[in-house]
Write a structure and sequence with these properties.
14 strands; about 325 residues; five-stranded antiparallel β-sheet; binds biotin; seven-stranded mixed β-sheet; BirA Bifunctional Protein, domain 2
Length: about 325
């Protein structure tokens, strides 16, 4: 396995690291290091080699590198699959088996990806499909705020990396110019007064062509070129760390302040459906508990905690 050498190269990727140093640290010969570097090059890693200076990692192939994610974020362990049915299902199994908070599962392809309300979620190569476990020490009633913690993290990461302003459709769809870019699915297991675990599942169309069936688009369509999915994933997870700290400190006003800033739902006429019941009206606000405030046609003000939103007409 060349992964041990890769970890050194990632750790020192802004500079050259000598073959002799790596060999000494790993207790192997310089020839063995050189062989492992060749293997990494064959796998698509671009590595510069210079006499007397050693090796320098220039870029990754378009595949998620768990070693990079572990070094760059506080997520661990990281499980990376070529193909899996659904990272959400796998994360749930791991959660039941007692895996810790911030266990991360990423797959290049999902064969049975699922969206909200059990809908199919197309997950071809080139996208980011991942799930992670949380074990929040809080009452279950505040779990819906996690929708905004996650949506804020994705929006902030994309803004910082690519200078694109994303919008959030309540409660957690991420849109760019009216088209869906990212979906967030959250599964909560709890008693009435105690959370057991939460699985956060995030799907982002990145370098894959966006699905034809829904009005969606990919990051590459916005940025105009393929982007580095390792950097994007690490950035989202690091933004999540910051947003989740606000959640743990009960600083919900800060979370919801940003969520309202990026909302494309406030001020619009919508239909909200939940378990076969529909309500129509104008969204006047999203409050600090994450609830949608809907002014219905007869003037009634409803506080809506869960549901699917459809835009009826822009005001
Ligand atoms: C939605 O918008 O309906 C939510 C989509 C969530 C998709 C992600 S992809 C990774 C994880 N695994 C799944 O099966 N679903 C989530």
């Amino acid at each position: 396995m060349a992964k041990d050498v890769l970890t050194f190269l990632i750790d020192n990727r802004d500079s050259f690291v000598s073959g002799e140093y790596i060999a000494k640290k790993l207790g192997i010969s310089r020839q063995a290091v050189s062989k492992k570097v060749s293997m990494l090059k064959d796998d698509g890693f671009v590595i510069q080699s210079k006499t007397n200076r050693g090796y320098r990692l220039m870029s990754f192939p378009d595949v998620i590198v768990p070693e990079y994610i572990v070094l760059e974020t506080n997520f661990k362990p990281v499980f990376h699959h070529e193909t899996i049915d659904s990272t959400n299902l796998q994360a749930r199994k791991f959660a039941l088996d007692g895996f810790p908070e911030r266990t991360l599962i990423v797959s290049e392809v999902q064969t049975s990806g699922r969206g909200r309300m059990g809908r199919e979620w197309q997950s071809p190569k080139g996208g980011l499909w991942f799930s992670f476990i949380l074990r929040p020490r809080c009452i279950p009633s505040i779990a819906p705020l996690l929708n905004f913690v996650v949506a804020n993290s994705v929006a902030k990461a994309m803004d910082e990396l690519y200078d694109i302003n994303l919008k959030m459709k309540w409660p957690n769809d991420i849109f760019y110019e009216g088209k869906k870019l990212c979906g967030i699915g959250i599964l909560v297991s709890s008693d009435i007064d105690l959370m057991h675990y939460v699985v956060i599942g995030i799907g982002i169309n990145v370098n894959n062509p966006s699905p034809q069936s829904v009005d969606s688009l990919s990051v590459k369509d916005i940025v105009g070129k393929e982007v580095d999915r390792n950097i994007l994933l690490a950035n989202i997870l690091n933004k999540f760390k910051e947003e989740y700290t606000l959640f743990e400190r009960n600083e919900f006003d800060k979370i919801m302040g940003y969520a309202r800033e990026i909302s494309n739902t406030i001020g619009h006429e919508v239909r909200v459906s939940f378990l076969g019941v529909e309500k129509r009206g104008i969204v006047t606000d999203i409050d600090d508990s994450g609830a949608l405030m809907l002014e219905e046609e007869d003037g009634t003000l409803s506080k809506i905690l869960a549901g699917d939103v459809d835009f009826l007409r822009h005001l």
